[in-house]
Design brief:
About 10% of the residues lie in helices and about 45% in strands. It contains two helices and 15 strands. The radius of gyration is 21 Å and the shape is elongated.
Length: about 200
């Protein structure tokens, strides 16, 4: 069996990067443009909800780019939750902290990938769960100090599970998997990707 575990495992684990690198990071961010007039407004393109003091608390609108957006603000005018749907059908729900940083993202891309991401108070990814259109699924956990992946758990489209552990530099150091023939295998490598132990040996 090949020692190139990275390619085998990432068939299921690497799904999350494509999903959140596109629909979430590319088109979704806090700070939806809201109407500056603090009046009760109802039109075919925008609805603005204000509180008794005139502070904007929610906006439902379609942007010039065709993005349907519903945004909610707290009592201090800070964006705290948003729902967006783009023209191609991709949708994201986001929750934000007091400083506008992403905290939780739930999305469904037009490609059929679905995912959930949880971020730290500093904006770094902590955990991401993703499922692909062909039913592969993966969970990735990140180092809160540097943002690099430290552990990944995935199940391939054929139903084969794998667990991989990374070092602080993001290098694959250990993997345990069970293949489609129900054969288990544990492999450990050094920082140069050279095998130092394998059970069973091959």
């Amino acid at each position: 069996m090949s020692m190139n575990r990275r390619g085998l495992l990432y068939g299921s684990l690497a799904l999350i990067g494509g999903f959140f690198g596109g629909i979430v990071a590319g088109q979704f961010s806090p700070g939806v443009a809201m109407a500056s007039r603090q009046t009760k407004t109802l039109t075919s393109e925008q609805f603005v909800l204000v509180d008794h003091s005139g502070l904007q608390r929610a906006v439902l609108e379609v942007t010039p780019q065709g993005l349907a957006s519903l945004a909610f603000r707290d009592g201090k005018g800070r964006d705290r939750a948003e729902l967006r749907v783009d023209q191609s059908g991709g949708a994201v729900v986001g929750f934000f902290g007091e400083k506008g940083e992403r905290r939780v993202m739930v999305g469904s891309a037009e490609t059929g990938r679905d995912g959930i991401a949880i971020f730290s108070a500093g904006g770094r990814a902590l955990a991401q769960l993703s499922a692909s259109p062909d039913n592969g699924a993966s969970l990735t956990l990140y180092d809160p100090t540097n943002g690099r992946a430290r552990a990944g758990l995935g199940v391939s489209t054929e139903g084969a599970p794998a667990l991989v552990l990374f070092d602080q530099n993001g290098r694959d150091r250990a993997e345990f998997r069970i293949d489609t023939r129900n054969k288990p295998r544990l492999v450990m490598v050094d920082e140069n990707n050279k095998a130092i132990a394998a059970v069973p040996e091959q």
